[in-house]
Write a sequence for this structure.
């Protein structure tokens, strides 16, 4: 063993990055381990060909699906994790999402905390990530104060569409977006390459820019890039983690610490715990419930495009509006259908990835006349939807989507809305089972150690100095984007760690 820290944080995305920022003001000596590197600031950041065809920034991992076939997961390893690529739609869950809700395919379970518990941390997360929005318009909005920043104005076509949506009796609302210094000299220019791209101007609110870079300015915080945590090592009783084995530049070292925060994303955090099995934890670390890796969820998401042959769409930044009228119930059902959002502009290259043999120019003509949308529904936790690690250490994702009927209803409802807006045709596309962008739920939190892996402060029930703060803790997936909830819970857990784990001078006693 060659180095000791007070706290090791594994992963620097929405959970780990926010945690590092929130703990950095303590005196604790903190080491952040990140398996990827900084994403370079370069022209390719905004090049659809580099991002969508050459998959320049995509993780190189190959995972196995439930049939044992390899696939490239839609995920990214680097400082800031997937937040570097997110669309920065930063939603609070609705109050109802914290409660048990009857869905078409069963019950979406209650969370061990309610909305009011997380509300002050949502407020802090919104300030940290510079969220722009307007309260009092969205019919599903939970009680809240004003947004820290004014909403992004709709582009001309979108403004017209919003007016027509209101005429349809709907309640369109501004999407809450994390964008830095919009319209200022060094700020966001509201371009057409945001969602799924890296911001070349560093003007997107994401964990690298908002959390990690400020945190590592402090003398007590160290970041190791290209440092992959391979295994957590416990003491003989198994009650405490004493060290992490880290692979860096081809060498493995063992780093000891008093407290560990795992934040590798829902799939990789579960895999790390499973790979850390030992005589004290034969089924994987902190797995006395048998739930490590189980209950994987990822949302049901369909990309939709309304097309009109004679209407060119001149809106550059299109991702500004949400329709939540069907979030709590459908027009003809008592169960929830989900959310509709306008999406960033589709580029010809992106559309071409669906049918690569068709030349690019018809796609370019097509997308110039399209308006893009996303229909997103909740999927429910199922024990059989799970992450496993095989004898060779390969990661396998078993996932059968559920709650499909309400999602189909939401897609059909969206088609009706778009046709009423005058679009001649509505095309749809889904990544289906391979969509890992909103992965969550594999180490769910709860009060009962028999039915959850983490306690309500995201500490593992079984191991006293091990926390997991990333999308893993979600007991249900809700139907809004997960990022702000991950960040809010990270701030809440950081406060708890400061209150209960750090001694007088801010280090672990
Ligand atoms: C294209 C895209 C668009 C999205 N848009 C939105 C959006 O608009 N709004 C929203 O809320 N969400 C969005 N999401 C989802 C959002 O990015 C994720 O929910 C969020 O980043 C998850 O946070 P996390 O901390 O769980 O994991 P990540 O952010 O994925 O961070 C995990 C980190 O751990 C590192 N890591 C993994 N394993 C190891 C290891 N063994 N050792 C060391 N480091 C490790 C990874 O490299 C990564 O940096 C989007 C995702 C994608 C891909
Ligand atoms: S300039 Fe603004 S819209 Fe464009 S990528 Fe950066 S944050 Fe996103």
């Amino acid at each position: 063993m060659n180095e000791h820290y007070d706290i090791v944080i594994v992963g620097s995305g929405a959970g780990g990055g926010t945690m590092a920022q929130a703990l950095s003001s303590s005196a604790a000596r903190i080491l952040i381990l990140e398996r990827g590197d900084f994403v370079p600031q370069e022209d390719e950041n905004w090049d659809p060909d580099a991002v969508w065809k050459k998959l320049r920034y995509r993780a190189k991992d190959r995972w196995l699906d439930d049939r044992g076939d390899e696939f490239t997961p839609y995920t990214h390893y680097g400082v800031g994790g997937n937040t570097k690529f997110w669309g920065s739609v930063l939603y609070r869950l609705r109050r109802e999402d914290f409660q048990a809700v009857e869905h078409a395919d069963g019950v979406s379970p209650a969370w061990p905390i309610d909305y009011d518990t997380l509300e002050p941390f949502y407020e802090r997360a919104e300030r940290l990530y510079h969220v722009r929005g307007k309260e009092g318009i969205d019919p599903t909005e939970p009680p809240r104060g004003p947004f820290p920043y004014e909403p992004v104005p709709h582009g001309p076509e979108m403004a017209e569409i919003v007016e027509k949506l209101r005429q349809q009796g709907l309640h369109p609302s501004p999407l809450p977006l994390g964008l830095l210094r919009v319209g200022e000299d060094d700020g966001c220019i509201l371009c057409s390459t945001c969602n799924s791209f890296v911001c070349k101007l560093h003007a997107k609110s994401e964990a690298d820019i908002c959390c990690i870079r400020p945190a590592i300015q402090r003398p007590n915080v160290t970041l190791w890039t290209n440092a992959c945590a391979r295994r957590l090592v416990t003491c003989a009783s198994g009650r405490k983690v004493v060290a992490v084995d880290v692979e860096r530049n081809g060498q493995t070292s063992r780093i000891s610490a008093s407290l560990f925060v795992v934040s590798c994303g829902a799939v990789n955090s579960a895999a790390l715990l499973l790979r850390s099995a030992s005589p004290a934890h034969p089924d994987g670390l902190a797995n006395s419930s048998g739930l490590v890796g189980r209950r994987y969820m990822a949302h049901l998401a369909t990309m939709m495009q309304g097309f009109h042959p004679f209407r060119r769409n001149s809106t550059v930044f299109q991702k500004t509006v949400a329709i939540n009228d069907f979030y709590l119930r459908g027009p003809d059902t008592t169960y929830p259908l989900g959310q509709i959002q306008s999406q960033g502009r589709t580029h010809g290259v992106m559309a071409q990835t669906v049918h690569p043999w068709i030349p690019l120019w018809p796609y370019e003509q097509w997308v110039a006349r399209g308006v893009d949308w996303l229909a997103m529904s909740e999927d429910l936790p199922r024990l059989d939807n799970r992450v496993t690690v095989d004898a060779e250490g390969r990661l396998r994702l078993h996932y059968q989507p559920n709650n499909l009927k309400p999602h189909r209803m939401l897609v059909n409802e969206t088609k009706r809305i778009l046709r009423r807006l005058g679009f001649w045709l509505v095309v749809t596309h889904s990544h289906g089972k391979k969509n890992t962008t909103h992965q969550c739920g594999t180490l769910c939190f709860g009060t009962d150690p028999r039915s959850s892996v983490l306690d309500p402060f995201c500490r593992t029930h079984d191991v006293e100095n091990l926390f997991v703060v990333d999308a893993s803790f979600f007991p249900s997936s809700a139907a809004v984007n997960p990022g702000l909830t991950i960040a809010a819970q990270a701030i809440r857990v950081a406060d708890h760690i400061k209150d209960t784990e750090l001694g007088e001078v801010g280090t672990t006693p």
